Amino acid sequence: MRDFTNLGWPEAPFGADQRPFGRRSDMLAAFAFEWANRRADDTLPVGAAVIYLCVRKRGSAEDIRAGTVSIGFRATVVDCMSEAPALLALVDRALTRARRHAAIVAGHRLDDDLTRMTALSTTPLRGAAGVLAAWADRTKRERGLALMVDTYVEASATGADLDATGQPRPTPMQDSAERRVAVACTVLERCLAIGLTAAVYTGRYRWDGTFPVGETIDCVAWDVLTPTERAWDLAEQLPRAGP
Questions:
Q1: Domain boundaries along the sequence of the chain
Q2: How many whole angstroms separate alpha carbon 149 and alpha carbon 138?
Q3: CA distance 128 to 30
Q4: pLDDT per residue over 41-70, tens digit each?
């Protein structure tokens, strides 16, 4: 697998030394997946991303711009389908940490992704199971655990103006550096759109005009994503699998 991240310790983003932001702020963790179909009845994950946003604890919303928002990110892309179980395990660990240490966990129909994860894994995924159970009743928040936000449901009418759709775009398996970068950029862009929408819904962020999601990913990840041309343009050229 290939990791694309700006975190020094991506396996411990909430640790005192590794936390990408100070403890005076809350953290919002957004999740997104990229799926591909080998056959009509065989869908496997080819990439996943988690983005951590620094948000105010509560009160008035923070005005943000593309160049001022603090973003921690990790995108992981498989090189071959045999690595899918390792990707599922990595995401499961991130879900476990986020549910217990983030203030907000966000996803776009994340329950569908978690159900797929659970069905595909040959070992128990406790993080996915815990978030899936909480996702079923997001109005009931347990003390000390993250608030769950589905941008497909409760955050769909926030009025957050973004230049990304947040819709699934499964990608075929083609073993090349360009393919890996394209998948990473695509899933990071979708993940940031999810996180920003959830931040608006929960009253943590606001901005004027349209927020440039793709441009922001380009700025914060330029040193780890080095495509020969804009990766989201590359992703547009890839054939799409079914939903």
A1: 2-237
A2: 7
A3: 14
A4: 567 889 999 999 988 887 778 899 888 888
Q: What HEC string does the chain produce?
A: CEEEECCCCCCCCCCCCCCCCCCCCEEEEEEEEEEEEEECCEEEEEEEEEEEEEECCCCCCEECCCCCCCEEEEEEECCCHHHHHHHHHHHHHHHHHHHHHCCEEEECCHHHHHHHHHHHCCCCCHHHHHHHHHHHCCCCCCCCCCEEEECCCCCCCCCCCECCCCCCCCCCCCCCHHHHHHHHHHHHHHHHHHHHHHHHHCCCEECCCCECHHHHHHHHCCCCCCCCCCHHHHHHHCCCCCC
Token pair belonging to 103: 């203030």
Residues facing residue 107 across a β-bridge: 150
CATH number of 2-237: 3.30.420
Alpha-carbon gap, residue 62 to 146, rounded angstroms:
20
Judge whether 106 and 198 are in contact, CB under 8 Å: yes
pLDDT on residue 105: 96
Choose among 25, 11, 32, 213: nearest CA to 106.
32
From residue 174, alpha-carbon distances to 77, 79, 190, 221 in Å are: 12, 8, 21, 22
What global pTM score does this model have? 0.84
List the structure tokens of 187: 């899933």
Residues of the chain with pLDDT under 70: 15-24, 38-42, 164-175, 226-243
